[in-house]
Design brief:
Order of helices and strands: EEEEEEEEEEEEEEEEEEEEEEEEEEEEE
Structural class: mainly beta
Mean pLDDT: 75
Low-confidence stretches: 1-12, 213-230, 325-338
Strand order of the largest sheet: 4-3-2-28
Radius of gyration: 20 Å
Number of helices: 0
Helix content: under 10%
Number of strands: 29
Distance between the termini: 4 Å
Length: about 350
């Protein structure tokens, strides 16, 4: 006689919300924002970026260092510190990750965020440029963006996991805030000022196209935040009117070639952060971009429309993290087979 163990499974999507200005408070949702539960505070009161490649493993960075959790955000430990603040962090399921910050600091991890060190390759000459964003397509290909150095925007690309680096977009002159990539060829960068809308590339950064000439993104608008694509072709971003606290969501259904306005937030609110899986998404927005109180919305159609969501936190501008899909083991049943 033999025994077969049958185990039921359910799929859970985790959202983690971290206050990035003043409290370090953390909240977790396992039902995409329908309900929230408070978890342990971050070691730092200022958090700039959070990345979760799995249900349990996550990393975050802020003014004081890099932090790591192995229990889904319930507790956090400091794993790296530096004299300059960190601005953005990404960790892949493979354990490869990147973190960037002030004074041209770039750190890499190859063990799931346990240790962090400078990559083996030498960065292009960028002085002490403030690096503001990082995105990784896979273990080998990543982009790093930042402020202007020697008259040109800093866009740095590696295609060999950090062994070598090269600058891209040499003719662009606007400071950048964020970068997002969907694969090794499709990447978009957004400006950190509201007088230009950013650029996109469909060939791995060999050439860049200015989004200011695209439908709906022109005339005193700037990209306030960009979102990883819910689908292979869909892009979603928020732009804020220059000199006004107004955000509009723009969608592209052809990898960034054309954009159209789909949703405007209430007057006075600007998008802080957006996350999505499939066509299901979640965003928060605050008055004056980075000030409270916040409002929250969900979507089930790729941000074509928004529905008000539960507000887990009333404060400044929480950062949102989205864990990748995973299976949660349920009750098991042993069957004896003759």
């Amino acid at each position: 006689m033999s025994t077969i163990k049958l185990t039921s499974q359910k799929y859970v999507t985790q959202l983690l919300l971290v206050d990035d200005l003043g409290t370090g408070a953390c909240f977790r949702s396992l039902d995409f924002g329908a309900t929230w539960a408070a978890v342990s505070k971050m070691p730092s009161l200022t958090v700039n970026s959070v990345s979760f490649p799995s249900p349990s493993l996550g990393v975050a960075c802020g003014a004081a260092g890099i932090y790591r959790t192995t229990d889904g955000g319930m507790t956090w430990a400091t794993v790296a510190t530096t004299g300059v603040g960190f601005n953005d962090i990404v960790l892949l399921p493979s354990g490869i990750g990147w973190c960037v910050g002030g004074s041209a600091v770039v750190l890499q991890t190859k063990d799931g965020g346990v240790t962090w060190a400078a990559p083996s390759g030498t960065l292009p000459s960028i002085g002490t440029t403030n690096l503001t964003g990082v995105a990784a397509a896979n273990d080998k290909v990543a982009w790093i963006v930042g402020a202007v150095y020697s008259g040109n925007t800093v866009i740095i690309n590696t295609t060999d996991g950090g062994a070598t680096f090269a600058r891209q977009g040499a003719t662009y002159t606007m400071p950048l805030g964020t970068v997002a990539c969907w694969d090794t060829q499709n990447v978009i960068v957004s400006c950190s000022t509201l007088d230009s809308s950013g650029r996109y590339s469909l060939n791995g950064g060999s050439t860049w196209n200015d989004m200011s000439g695209l439908s709906g993104v022109y005339g005193g608008y700037g990209v306030h935040g960009s979102l990883l694509a819910p689908t292979a072709t869909l892009r979603v971003m928020a732009v804020s009117a220059l000199g006004a606290n107004v955000s509009t969501l723009y969608r592209s259904t052809n990898k960034g070639l054309n954009w159209s306005a789909v949703t405007a937030l209430p007057t006075g609110y600007q998008v802080n952060n957006m996350v999505a899986r499939g066509n299901v998404g979640y965003l928060n927005a605050g008055i004056g971009a980075y000030n409270g109180p916040n409002v929250y919305y969900t979507t089930t159609d790729g941000f074509a429309t928004l529905q008000p969501a539960v507000a887990p936190y009333v404060g400044y501008s929480p950062r949102l993290a989205l864990a990748t899909g995973w299976s949660v083991l349920g009750p098991s049943l042993d069957l004896e087979v003759a």
